[in-house]
Amino acid sequence: MNSQASGAGDGAVVLSARRISKSFSGVQVLFSVDFDLRAGEIHALMGENGAGKSTLVKILSGFEQPTSGEIILDGHPVKLPPNGAAEALGIVIIHQEFNLAEHLTVTESLFLGREVTRFSVLDRKYMRAEARRVLDLLGSHVDENAMISSLSIADKQMVEIAKAISRDARVVFMDEPTAVLSREETNFLFKQVRKLRDQGTSFVFVSHKLDEVMELTDRVTVLRDGQWIKTSPTSILDGESIAQLMVGRELSKLYPAKREPNVDEEIVLSVDALSTGYVKDASFEIRKGEILGFSGMIGSGRTELMEAIAGLRSRTSGEVIIRGETVPSGDVHAANRRGLAYMTKDRKSKGLLLNSRMTANLTLQSLENHGKLGYLSPASEAQALARARRRFDIRVRDGNVVAGRMSGGNQQKLLLAKVMETEPEIIIIDEPTRGIDVGTKQQIYHFISALARDGRSIIVVSSEMPEVIGLCTRVAVMREGRIVGMLEGDEISEQEIMRYAAGLKKKAA
Amino acid sequence: MDTSVNEEIREIHRRSWRDIDLRAVAPFAALVLLLILGAIVNPNFIGINNLANVATRSAFIAIIAIGATFVISSGDLDLSVGSMVAFVASLMIIFMNSGVIADPALMLTAAVLFAVIAGSLCGLANGLITTVGRIEPFIATLGTMGIYRGLTTWLSQGGAITLKDPALQEMYRPAYFGYIFGVPVPIVVILAVTSVAAFILYRTRYGRHVVAVGSNADVARYSGIPVNRVRTIAFVIQGLCVAIAVLLYVPRLGSTSATTGILWELQAITAVVVGGTALKGGAGRVWGTICGAFILELVGNIMLLSNFISEYLIGAIQGTIIIVAMLVQRSLVRKS
Q1: Cβ atoms A408, A49 nearer than 8 A
Q2: What ipTM was estimated for this complex?
Q3: Side-chain half-sphere of B7: how many Cα atoms within 13 Å?
Q4: Most Cβ neighbours (<10 Å): which of A9, A257, A288, A292?
Q5: A326: closest CA among A341, A313, A309?
Q6: Which of B280, B214, B232, B265 is nearest to B130 (CA)?
Q7: A383 and B CB contact within 8 Å
Q8: How would residue A109 be classed by pLDDT, with cut points 50, 70 and 90?
Q9: What's the distance, Cα to Cα, between the start and end of chain B in Å?
Q10: pLDDT above 50 for B335
Q11: What is the pLDDT of residues A393-446, one digit of tens each?
Q12: Nearest residue, CB atoms, A399 vs list B12, B226, B334
């Protein structure tokens, strides 16, 4: 499985970090870290959230300057230019959050800042052809004339990668590139990355997905709490040992024990023939204390369905019934009042106010619990925060930190805490662990399990199959806007889910 | 991680020096600098009479700017406030001239209520056009700015509208020229309006909603906040503040014309921005706004008292202030 590159073990070092330390307003986040990247290798950078991976990547790409230590490029100490100017040196970063202007076309995005001109007029024809060439090289079907805003997240990702390639990058940093890609798209991306690697391009691959790291990378460097822990060839490690290096302790079982649901429990939510936009005729029910999974490809309509149930979008037909009561369409408040809460997968743009502190975020959805007649009691809010921090183990050095400065894992815990503040009976969690480290993942799985044991009903929407399989006692599979399968017990397996998701099998009933 | 609840609460309350947001402090520092500068330029400047005078004259802009703080914090903008002052003031005077109520005291009370309702409705119109009509606030209020101004010009037939009844005039005069415990009424009104506004913005659910909507409307929507209602109410608050400013304005001159309140929207927005509120929404600073309004008036006063800058340059200086304020704010954004 390990695709050891021909020259991966002995390429010359292109870029390296020597004893890099970094502090932000007095808080040290990197402690004398060493890192080197050889020509033509794919180097995984692993660590829990807050381990310092993102900071190291930013330093090595010039977006941050180290507090101390050296960066060496081609054997010479350098000071990398800031704000992406290091691209001129062939060092390119593909951001976790896309850096694409929504109003440009694909071609315009690829050539942004280095437009080709003829007689000082834009040479559109040439640029379009060149864009097509790069996209074909990647095997992408994205139309070079399409607007960025019209692309799916996966296609945007491809455009980002095409942008890097078209800039003759020698060193490419990829921060969680597969988080938004389907398995197929991921395979494709990996094929292209290997091809470029064999031509001498070096990649730094930041990911939380252990199987992908095992599959793709040549070497692994693990950071923990801002310290360098280990660098070693991927081939002599396995997923378990990497996870242990990252966490620094034995990972007990990732998923809590499943508890079979009681079939006599009342049905708390039933969705009947719901249609909205892309979603057609979706029906399902969930019992008290049950964990129901929703699987399917990206774009299969899972999020749209859940948003319609939660009242965040109007439904065109069908009913949502909570404990026998029909919920009006497109009314978040009504769904909330009946004890249903939806936790978005998009914590940074739809979940948290990144410029606000933890308290303001935590209580935003439940302000009526903190004072009378619209007045807010700071003491009551502070108590809620203290409670939530203990309950969900939100770890921050400073209680006044703004949400945007917290690690992904802590943000996710804060978002979960925020949703739980409304004391919902039915909780829809969309992508519970996107972009968070394995230690926090495990914690979140245990929170979910505990909530179900409390008698709450939980819908887990996830693109990570092991997660759905490990947590849920029933799994619905969606394809092209429809629920095409409902799996129970022993039927729940990766192969079976894939069969439904890929359209090889359809609901018998 | 096993600290007790109380300890954690104490930690949350603790504010170390480096936590102080420089952006919140900057306008007040600028104010102190201006006071020192003024004292150097002319010793009469620092006298209590002169300063009280400046504060009194800043009242209109200050009170309007308080409303603008809500609108801007929720991520919108209202360009119509200057025209709205002229319109509401004209309506109020016409109402008082109509003589429908004989008793002056009753008439005055009714007129005050009338102005408050008129202002609120003007704000409500702005809010509904922006939210229900889904028109950019800049364009929506650019439209109503023209409408309110045009209606005023039409009502006054291009001239002035003057309060006729001397009894009413006499009774209403103290609302601007009077004192409460030795403090000019307009200053008392500024303080009262600001205190109420600060309470609403910082201590109520609605205030929290305003900030949430302004910093990220999507997050607000996903948190079950009625985004359009929050935005509309902010426009109504703006209309109310305009009405309160009108209540002070009418007794001052007893008349309005088509040119009343011209460019006040720019001064109000300048006061808000100088006070540290971000124009893109998400952070409102009520006391900063008052400070901003006071700074604008002080600069004019210093120019008047000094002999080396022509007071005709006041517009240019105020324009410079808003640009400098933005530059200073940006340089103070805490490094990430």
Answers
A1: yes
A2: 0.83
A3: 5
A4: A292
A5: A309
A6: B232
A7: yes
A8: confident
A9: 26
A10: no
A11: 998 877 888 898 888 889 999 999 999 999 999 999 999 988 787 788 889 999
A12: B12
Q: Could you please report the per-residue DSSP string of A305-317?
A: HHHHHTTSS--SE
Residues forming a β-bridge with A274: A282
Report how far residue B218's alpha carbon sits from residue B207's, in angstroms, rounded to the nearest whole number.
17
Distances (CA, A) of A323 to A129, A261, A265, A448, B279: 58, 18, 12, 21, 45
The answer, for A376 touching chain B at a CB cutoff of 8 Å, is yes
For B222, the token pair is: 């996903």
Question: Is A405 within 8 Å of chain B by CB?
Answer: yes
Is the Cβ of A389 closer than 8 Å to some Cβ of chain B?
A: yes
- Give the distance, in angstroms, between the CA of residue A187 and the centroid of all CA atoms in the same chain: 17
B222, B227, B230: best mutation site toward chain A, by most A Cβ within 10 Å? B222
Mapping DSSP to helix (H, G, I), strand (E, B) and coil, where does residue B82 land?
Answer: helix
Report the C-alpha gap between A330 and A304 in whole angstroms.
12
Question: Among candidates B315, B283, B323, B277, which has minimal Cα distance to B299?
Answer: B315
Query: Which of B202, B214, B236 is CA-nearest to residue B127?
Result: B236
Percent of chain A with pLDDT over 70: 94
Which residue, among B13, B218, B219, B237, would best test binding to A if mutated, counting the most A CBs under 10 Å from its CB? B219
At B260, give phi and psi (nearest 5°): -65, 135
The closest of A68, A80, A63 to A29, measured between CA atoms, is A68
pLDDT reading at B209 higher than 90? yes
Residue A105 near chain B (CB below 8 Å): no
Eight-state DSSP code of residue A364: T
Taking 3-state DSSP, the helix, strand and coil percentages for chain B, each rounded to the nearest 5, stand at 75, 5, 20
Could you tell me the pLDDT band of residue A85, with boundaries at 50, 70 and 90? confident
- Residue A393: closest CA among chain B residues belongs to which residue? B1
pLDDT in tens, A193-245: 888 888 888 999 988 778 888 889 999 999 988 889 989 999 898 877 887 78
Q: Please state, for a pLDDT cut of 90, what percent of chain A lies above it.
A: 40
What are the structure tokens assigned to A140, written together? 């992408």
Residue B204 to residue A374, Cβ atoms within 8 A? yes
Residue with tokens 């606030």: B137
CB of B226 less than 8 A from some CB of A: yes
Q: What is the pLDDT of residue B333?
A: 64
- Residue range B271-292: mean pLDDT, rounded: 90
Q: What is the mean pLDDT of residues B123-133?
A: 97
3-class secondary structure, A296: strand
Total Cβ atoms within 10 A of residue B92: 25
Region A455-482 average pLDDT: 90
Alpha-carbon gap, residue A428 to A426, rounded angstroms = 7
pLDDT per residue as tens digits for the range B321-331: 889 888 887 77
Closest CA to A478 of A469, A487, A470, A491: A487
Statement: residue A54 has pLDDT above 70: yes
Task: Please name every residue paired with A317 in a beta bridge, in sequence order, or none if there are none.
Answer: A275
Kindly report the backbone phi and psi dihedral angles of residue B53, in degrees, each rounded to the nearest multiple of 5, phi listed first. Answer: -60, -45
At position A221, the amino acid (one-letter code) is: T
- Report the pLDDT value the prediction gives residue A10, as an integer from 0 to 100: 59
Distance spanning both ends of chain A, measured CA to CA = 40
Residues of chain A neighbouring B203 (CB-CB closer than 8 A): 375-376
- For A419-478, the DSSP string reads HHTT--SEEEEESTTTT--HHHHHHHHHHHHHHHHTT-EEEEE-S-HHHHHHH-SEEEEE
